[in-house]
Automatic annotation (TrEMBL):
Lineage: Bacteria, Bacillati, Actinomycetota, Actinomycetes, Kitasatosporales
Taxonomic source organism: Streptomyces vulcanius
Key words of the record: DNA-binding, Transcription, Transcription regulation
Domain called HTH tetR-type: residue spans: 6-65
Gene3D superfamilies according to UniProt: Tetracycline Repressor, domain 2
InterPro entries: Homeodomain-like_sf, HTH-type_TetR-like_transc_reg, HTH_TetR, Tet_transcr_reg_TetR-rel_C_sf, TetR_SbtR-like_C
A UniProt-annotated Pfam family: TetR_N
Protein name: TetR/AcrR family transcriptional regulator
Record bears the keyword Thylakoid: no
Length: 209
């Protein structure tokens, strides 16, 4: 890559990182180019697609944040505390970092490197849930799909309440966690989502095909 192209790529990465943190992964590409001081065409020439830019800018940060949350949850001696920590941490990330919030909600599946991180996080989520259920603390009918659905709806709440009630997600998460304890469980009126249903619903929630 020529020196001028490398400089433009670096400026675009910096601008994209800033705007993704401010607005989430749907931040307009034209605004990213404008903040970087380059043309829209230069962005496409260097990165090609939004997904490629996301992979360049967001994937490593998402891996660090999500891996750390899972490791901390699994390291807790009390399985319920680990499960609650994991949910609260990811809900807080959704509320405070729009880019990571979009990752947790499963937006932009075309970003291949990012989806590898999400798959690893998904596997860790299964271990965290299973551990809490084996300890008898988490209701046994709770599934990974249920948790991902919770994250999807929390993302919408966090985004909508950002300016008026930025801590509203904490109240919602507390209610939800109390309802997931084994002793609070009652028979559910319908079965869990399948993986395919979950992906379709999450796509509808996030506006991602």
């Amino acid at each position: 890559m020529r020196a001028d192209a490398q400089r433009n790529a670096d400026k675009l990465r910096t601008a994209a990182a800033e705007l993704f943190r401010e607005r989430g992964l749907q931040a307009p590409l034209k605004e990213i180019a404008r903040r970087a001081g380059v043309s829209h065409g230069t962005l496409y020439n260097l990165f090609g697609t939004r997904e490629a830019l996301i992979d360049e800018v967001v994937t490593d940060l998402a891996a660090t944040r999500l891996d750390e949350a899972a490791e901390q949850a699994l390291a807790r001696e009390d399985a319920w505390e680990g499960f609650a920590y994991y949910i609260e941490t990811l809900c807080e990330l959704q509320a405070t970092d729009p880019a990571i919030g979009d990752v947790v909600a499963g937006r932009y599946p075309g970003a291949e490197r990012l989806m590898t991180v999400c798959e690893r996080s998904y596997a860790a989520t299964a271990r965290i849930i299973e551990r809490a259920q084996q300890a008898g603390a988490l209701r046994p009918d709770f599934t990974r799909e249920d948790l991902l659905f919770i994250f999807g709806t929390n993302a919408l709440l966090a985004r909508a309440a950002k300016d008026t009630a930025p801590d509203a997600w904490r109240r919602s998460a507390a209610f939800m966690l109390d309802g997931l304890r084994t002793e609070a469980a009652h028979p559910l009126p319908t079965g869990p989502l399948t993986s395919q249903q979950m992906y379709q619903v999450m796509g509808n929630l996030t506006g991602t095909p």
